[in-house]
Amino acid sequence: MGKRVKQVPYLAEELISWVEDIKDKNGSSAGALYILKDNDVVVEHYSGRHSHEENARNVQADSQFNVASARKSYLGLAVSFALYDKYIESLDDPISEYMPELDPEIVMGTTIRHLVTHSHGLHIDEKGNWFREFKAGTGWAYRNIGVEILTELIQRLYGKGFPQLLEERIFSRIGLKETGWRTEPDESLVNIIGEVTEPALSGLGTTNDGTEKNLFVSVKEFALWGQLHLQKGRMNGEQIVPSQVIELSTSIQNGPYYDSSLPDNGLFWYVQGDARLRSEMGERVPRDSYQILGVTGPTLLVIPSLNVVVAKMYNKRYNYGGEDYLHYLREFSNKVADLFIDCQQP
């Protein structure tokens, strides 16, 4: 255990004020912030309603937000399990070894490592045709095609989708009831705001196999997902996930890039090595921290050196202001780092 956090009321006020300011600026109807320090809850905040409709439910502890691309951290852990279970021999295996039907000219040289670190260089045009954007391993681009390939890979390797795999191995064992790929309406589910003037979206899917962006999580359980990683897979006195599985997921796995501004990644997590201009984390966030983001605004930041987990939720697509989203993400992560480092001073 580290030093106890001092001045928690001030810390909470600073961070809550920032979260509320962004919520109001960008048209989210809902917001939440949940922070763990030394495994204690030091900030818990809920704000707004499930949509902009007058009769919408107030945000509360059991409200579940659509976490959009933050679901990639769950898929990343499933890939790590596949390596641990020897279904995959190495991250450097060509994906064609496991999915031989893929066009060999397009996927040539593309490994599982490239797919989980956004360095695969594959893209899809408006007609649905695959093409190569850059040579695998030489660049970085946030493209969902890698997620689609690996989702199918886990299904083939285990004979089940990665959500079912995680439910059996993790969720049911640590009591996660407010985490799931939702297909039916429920009052606890927060709507997604597209344009503020348009009707809210449900975010529901047609299946719970992980092929759709319909993962909903309460802010508390989002933080517990981060805490599971922070504690190297150990929860409630039990080793739920082998520590090697967690360590692989949350350490830098990409090779070096010619462009030093490109972000480092673990298995879909952004990981802080040398500070990178195009990373989601600011330059003052300590090394070995990691973070995941969704387009609807959820952000999960884990800072092992400070024993801190920060879960932040919104429900507005492109919540951070379009092309300037990195500025806001980096600003918040720097603020978190500065405040907790300052609070730990004797």
Description of the molecule:
By secondary structure, the chain is of the alpha+beta class. The protein has one domain: Beta-lactamase, CATH 3.40.710.10. The strands form four sheets. A six-stranded antiparallel beta sheet has the order 2-1-13-12-11-10, with helices on both faces. The protein has a three-stranded antiparallel beta sheet with strand order 3-7-6. The chain has a two-stranded antiparallel ribbon with strand order 4-5. A hairpin with a 2-residue loop joins strand 1 and strand 2. Helix 2 crosses helix 8. The radius of gyration is 19 Å and the shape is globular. It starts with 7 loop residues before the first helix and ends with a helix.
Any idea what the radius of gyration is? 19 Å
Return the string of H and E elements: HEEEHHHEEHHEEHEEHEEEEH
Q: What is the topology, as strand order, of the major beta sheet?
A: 2-1-13-12-11-10
Corresponding CATH superfamily: DD-peptidase/beta-lactamase superfamily
What's the CATH architecture name? 3-Layer(aba) Sandwich
Q: Which quaternary structure do these chains form? A: single chain
Organism: Rossellomorea vietnamensis
Protein name: Penicillin-binding protein
Domain Beta-lactamase-related: 18-327
InterPro entries: Beta-lactam-related, Beta-lactam/transpept-like, Diverse_Enzym_Activities
Task: Output the keywords.
346 residues; alpha+beta; Beta-lactamase; six-stranded antiparallel sheet; three-stranded antiparallel sheet; disordered N terminus; Diverse_Enzym_Activities
